[in-house]
Amino acid sequence: MKKNYKFKRIINSMGEYIISILFFIIIWHLYVKISNVPTYVLPSPGIVMEQLLELFSSGTIYPHLLVTSMEVIIGFIIGAFLGIVLGYFIVKSSTLKYALMPYLVFAQTAPKIALVPLFVIWFGIGLVSKIILIVSMVIFPVMMGIITGIDSIPEDSRNLMKILKSSPSQILFQLELPYSLPALFSSFKIGIVQAVIGAIVAEWISGKQGLGYILTYASSTYNTPMLIAGIVVTIVVGVITYELIALIENKLLYWHESKTF
């Protein structure tokens, strides 16, 4: 019964994406045709599809797709790990919380696109500067996720662990981390989207490879079909990585009330 429910939920999720995309394409096509919009301003869905097929059939897109995917995965993993560690220590130490939180908020609210040139100056135009930008965008939501998760643990559960004389490691792995997983996975979903955005922004400004570079090249050459095709591929990367996090969440949190009837 549960398997059928999960299967139906996956089908419904895919159906929502398909219906939304088809509706958007129909509106887009009708607008271009009725308004006689020039191709250099807004190409029709058919022209964009031809450009997409050309990018994939010629193999042009694959190295750029691989670079961006690698940056997103590495940056997300590092950022998520640092966010969990930092959030855990902050929630355990009020002194650390009051000392670091203002700076972390300042760093989060700083416009990331303005930081890219600084990162390029400090760390060069290679992979390191891009990873650092992605990490800076992932840390904060993951950190808030672990803080929210641990802060929401019922006091009765903590008291029970004390009565059982549980060690700090037992409290961490048997209470705090399991209880924090729902909030953590919500922050992971935000973080992975932020990671994709960070990778594209970094490549847009300083990259010679990646989907961001494709967008920059298409923009500088006024190749609107390629520009929109690159945006479409970027969106697909974001959706796939988001759904991968959701899939892992469903596997690990099958016991949680949000995953049951």
Please tag this protein with its features.
10 helices, 261 residues, elongated
Topology:
Elements: H1 2-35, H2 45-57, H3 61-92, H4 94-109, H5 112-123, H6 127-151, H7 155-163, H8 168-206, H9 211-220, H10 224-252
Class computed from helices, strands and strand pairing: mainly alpha
Poorly predicted residue ranges: none
- What does the radius of gyration come to? 22 Å
How many beta strands in the DSSP annotation? 0
The number of helices is 10
Q: What string gives the helices and strands in order?
A: HHHHHHHHHH
The proportion of residues forming helix, as a percent range, comes to: over 70%
Name the overall outline: elongated
* N- and C-termini, Cα separation: 10 Å
Mean pLDDT: 84
The biggest sheet, with number of strands, parallel, antiparallel or mixed sense and barrel status, is: none
State which percent range the strand residues make up: under 5%
Structure description:
The chain has 261 residues and is mainly alpha-helical. Helices cover 84% and strands 0% of the residues. The protein has helices at residues 2-35, 45-57, 61-92, 94-109, 112-123, 127-151, 155-163, 168-206, 211-220, 224-252. α3 (61-92) runs antiparallel to α4. The model has no long low-confidence stretch (mean pLDDT 84).
